[in-house]
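FORM 7B: Structural annotation worksheet

SECTION A. Query
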Amino acid sequence: MRIAKHVLFMLLLLTALPCSTYGQQYSVRILDGKHGLPSFEINSTFVDKHGYTWIATQDGLCRWNGRRIETFLPSLGDSTSILNQRCYTIHECSDGTLQFSSINGISTFDKGRQAFQNWSPNGDRNSTALRGSPLKWINDSLASFWAVS
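SECTION B. Predicted structure
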């Protein structure tokens, strides 16, 4: 009788396990150069509150909408382009503003204009004063600040 209880318990357990995960379906998509990803060297990823996936790579900042990748690159003479193609960190402020760090400074993405506002040390867009210094985001109740460590 005791063996029968154990066998019945095992049968119930085996039939219950698949039911608990049956309704969950996961899809995996591999993004690569064929999809427009400029580099496999990824420094950071982030999903913003609108559902876009941002990918900071060594060769450009990418935004994936689930169908295609858009890459943002610096453009000489265009002050509204991102500061550097190598982005390291991604941060979303409480108001939804996205900020990206590079060795040249910080780029803030203006969603309305689809353009960047940039800050760099001494106002020099080409400054590499932050080279080798990882930026760390520090948040407080008043604003969002960054610090070099």
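SECTION C. Observations
The CA atoms of residues 97 and 112 lie 11 Å apart. The two ends are 68 Å apart (CA to CA).

SECTION D. Sign-off
Analyst initials: ____
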